[in-house]
Amino acid sequence: EPFVADEYIERLAWRTPGGGSRGGEAFDPKRLLEEFVNHIQELQVMDERIQRKVEKLEQQCQKEAKEFAKKVQELQKSNQVAFQHFQELDEHISYVATKVCHLGDQLEGVNTPRQRAVEAQKLMKYFNEFLDGELKSDVFTNSEKIKEAADIIQKLHLIAQELPFDSLMDFCCYPLSSPGKYHDLECQLIQEFTSAQRRGEISRMREVAAVLLHFKGYSHCVDVYIKQCQEGAFLRNDVFEDAAILCQRVNKQVGEVFSNPETVLAKLIQNIFEVKLQSYVKDQLEEHRKSDAEQYLKNLYDLYTRTTNLSSKLMEFNLGTDKQTFLSKLIKSIFISYLENYIEVEIGYLKTRSAMILQRYYDSKNHQKRSIGTGGIQDLKERIRQRTNLPLGPSIDTHGETFLSQEVVVNLLQETKQAFERCHRLSDPSDLPKNAFRIFSMLVEFLCTEHIDYALETGLAGIPSSDSKNANLYFLDVVHQANTIFHLFDKQFNDHLMPLISSSPKLSECLQKKKDIIEQMEVKLDMGIDTLNCMIGQMKHILAAEQKKTDFKPEDENNVLIQYTNACVKVCGYVRKQVEKIRNSMDGKNVDTVLMELGVRFHRLIYEHLQQYSYSCMGGMLAICDVAEYRKCAKDFKIALVLQLFDTLHALCNLLVVAPDNLKQVCSGEQLANLDKNILHSFVQLRVDYRSARLARHFS
């Protein structure tokens, strides 16, 4: 434990008799002092003893340090001597190695010419056998030594090739040249390679291929290998899957057989594309090229897609440096004759198919399309002007048919979607935006112009005049369906067309075309404001038929049991239906715009209607109840201006019942203070008691 002086002294004092109060014993300072003095002396003696021991150990340590330093110096000297001996030995070894290398070079210089002489002697011996026309050597007669024979024949063939033809004939060694023993052996090697391939002997195939590598017929060996690889490989209906499996199998084997596996594999793939695939594609496409455009386009897209997918799989293999270009050229060689006029076939089919879809729909409705107007904006404005003049000409009765079909739209959009997909896959990248724009133009022509625009034109022509009774307002149904269809059109524009033209100048052209379509449709939808005239006309008919003069001037003022008139009930019911119909038919700001216009006209109608009657006190109360119901109906519009107009009208109706003394106070109220005094006066004049001098005096 760590030494603490205070604790040590405490323990010493505690152990000393009389050093503490233990056991009631009195404290004895003299005895404690004596104990401390004795203990100090003992500590001094112990310190001297320990100090002597420390000095002895230090002397011993210094002695051993000197001995160790001396020993280290001796070891360093021994190490230096050993290092010098090692350097001498290394120099001696280097000298001996130099001598050995020089001797090896001399031996090689002597042996190489000797080996060449031996090889030349052997070749001369074999050459003599060819001169004699009798091949006696075992290397030519033993079929197992075909590799050695091939090497000899190759060398003799090269020698024969260097000799002039006349000398060759003089030496009678023409068999060494083509077509002689060289080609006989070459054919024999190829036959051996073929047999080994059929037996599946990879090692033998590798040996024969290595021998044939120096022969002219090596390429023929590769051709034979490629031909035999394809035997039995294309037995299923899916030639593309068979080709992928074949290439994967050959890729594992070709590296074990040939020294240039990438070249052999590339040649196999080229053969598959130019023979198998090209023949298959031609059979599939030529059958429908002139007779069935739809099937032709589907087959072309499917075959091109499967070919490019196969190409992607083949990219995993080693085919040389630029395999991407190599495979692209192979694909192009197959499809170039079909892709050159692809877009013309596509546009022709799309045009015919779209026209057929529309015609089939109109035929199902027993409808013969008719020309309605010229379609120009000026003509539309002229028709609007004509519709506001009475009497109106006869309108077209559509019998409630909108001439818009979700099925037709889905079919047209589906055809166009498939066309965009084919265009993306089959078009050259430089022609892609242009081709996509042509497809988009077809969609605009048949969906927007021939279908939606025609339905709007027909719907506009079918809007009845404002004075028609029991008119059916089908135009809002047309608007509702046209709005839904255009959302589908816009979705396809963003999802399928935009990716194809987003980075090309055609983008602005397509956006402008889309904008023009929207503006043209909005103009025709604006013309549908005539529908509001019909609504107001229907309200007028209801009011004229249901509202009676006695409603607001009852014969018995004390026996009025109704809260509001029957005309008010029917008008409010009709208005609520039309508001709901407008909300279901339109969206966005168009809803608020149309409802505001309808609300303002509705207010004007009620305002003018109320001014046609005279009001007794109880009749005025009933008019206030009617206006309150109209105001409740106006809340359904959710348009602040409309609600404000009916609030003001409600305040005006209070003038019909307020006491004469309070007229001025009511007229100066918050809602009526800003109105023209003539308007206020016109409502006061509707009171039956207006002629009384008292009322005229209070209002003046």
UniProtKB/TrEMBL annotation:
The GO annotation for biological process reads: exocytosis; Golgi to plasma membrane transport
What would be one Gene Ontology cellular-component term for the protein?
exocyst
Q: Does the keyword Transport apply?
A: yes
| Keyword Mitochondrion carried by entry | no
InterPro entries linked to this entry: Sec10-like (IPR009976), Sec10_HB (IPR048627), Sec10_N (IPR048625)
The UniProt record lists the Exocyst complex component Sec10 N-terminal domain at: 29-137
Pfam families attached to this UniProt entry:
Sec10_HB (PF07393), Sec10_N (PF20667)
Coiled-coil segments on the chain, per record:
40-78
Q: Which UniProt keywords apply?
A: Coiled coil, Exocytosis, Transport
Q: Which part of the chain is the Exocyst complex component Sec10-like alpha-helical bundle domain?
A: 148-699
Database matches in PANTHER family:
EXOCYST COMPLEX COMPONENT 5, SEC10
Q: Which family does it belong to?
A: Belongs to the SEC10 family.
Q: Per its record, how is this protein called by name? A: Exocyst complex component 5
Q: Which organism is it from?
A: Himantopus himantopus
Q: Give the classification, highest ranks.
A: Eukaryota, Metazoa, Chordata, Craniata, Vertebrata
